[in-house]
Structure formats: C-alpha cells, structure tokens
Amino acid sequence: MSGRGAAMLAVMNERTIALVTGANKGIGYEIAAGLGRLGWSVGVGARDERRGADAVARLRASGADVFGVPLDVTDDESVRAAARLIEERAGRLDALVNNAGVSGSWPQNPTTVDLEGVRRLLETNVLGVVRVTNALLPLLRRSAHPRIVNQSSHVGSLTLQTTPGVELGGISGAYAPTKTYLNAVTVQYAKELSGTGILVNGACPGYVATDLNGFSGMQTPEQGAAVAVRLASLPDDGPTGQLFDDSGVVPW
User: pTM for this one?
Assistant: First the structure.
C-alpha cells in the first residue's frame, strides 16, 4: 500500500463507514446527508455515474464526507466492483442501507399486471438487496458495530394490508408484494445473523414526496430519511429483525 493509501486508511479507521444504495436523489440522498451530519464517511451509491457525481458534489459542499460508488444493484459485476472499491478505500463497512428501489408503472391490478414489470421490480427491490448484502457481508463482519437497513414500506405489511380501515393507496399487485418479500427476507437475515453483532432491520419512510409517487407524498425526503439514519446508528443492544417507522414498530 502506498503512503497516501495508508494515510487514507488510517483516517477511515477513525470514521464510521456507510454505503447507501440509490443515494443520488430523494430519500437516499437525504439518508447520506443525515449520516454525513453524524460525522460518518458515506458511500453514495448511484446507477447513473453523472447523477452520482452531482450528488457527491452537493453533499461535499454541505460539509459531508462522502465518496461516489458506481452501483447498479441489478448487476453482479457492478456490485462486486462496489465491494472492491469500499474494501480498497476503507477495509470494512459499518452500515449498509439498501435504499435503491423502483415502483413500476400503474395501474397494478394483479389480474392485468405486466409480468415483465413485476420481474423488474423484484430484480431491484428484492434480489438487488440480497445481491448487495451478500457481497458486502465480508466487510460488515469486519466492523465492530455492523448494521443493515432495508428500505421497505407500510404497503409491504400484510397486517396493515388486511386491517379494515387502513388506507394504503389502493391496489398494488407488483410494488407492494416486492416490499412484503423484502420484509420476509429481512427477517431471515436477522435470524441467520443473530449473535454476530450484525443488526438487520427494515425502515418505512412514510408517504414521502419523491419521483416514485409523482411527488404526491406528504413528507419531505429529509423526514423520510430519519428512520433509516436512526436504524443505521443503533446501539449494540438495539433491536434486530423488526420493521420501524417514525413512531415505532410496524407490524409485519
């Protein structure tokens, strides 16, 4: 390792290192900003390198310690390259926030839903999380306080979906089921990693104004990011295998 590389690694060893996928805009951008305000060094994962570079520039201008991570969660080689970049830069990872997600086109009535569209959503919202998590696990295992946060949604809760009087925005035969699947995967990761110190939880940001909903949400991206920031920075005796929003535990 060069002298410059050793010096950089020494600095990184003094900071908490995080990666946020889909962090070039919206909630992901605000999660990166929130972790940056904690004094962390944050990898800004972005599929579009130009947009990722723009986000890094804006975050740095605000005082955040961030670095770009070109990352398409649907592509094996892209994910492996991201893992190599973080290993070379920091040698470990303390927090992974799986934020990247897509909502697909509407309407999504299950009787007429486009199966190719469903597959695209599954590839990003579920398989992308598994792909990235498994690639980064070796680096998370090197952390003294590793955390994984999977960005879910209230619409993924089967309990809420089947509770009379709960309004979740109508029928969603593609997007909502991918979040239900993600919730189930989150539970299984928490069970497998129990006792390792790796805390794994799901986050519900709420109805946030982003391009996923045509900016019709009631909350700002910064408000929606708060729960993921909190879960990424949980103490060692914090919960695992649960789903949270601003007000507390959300039923699976």
Answer: 0.93
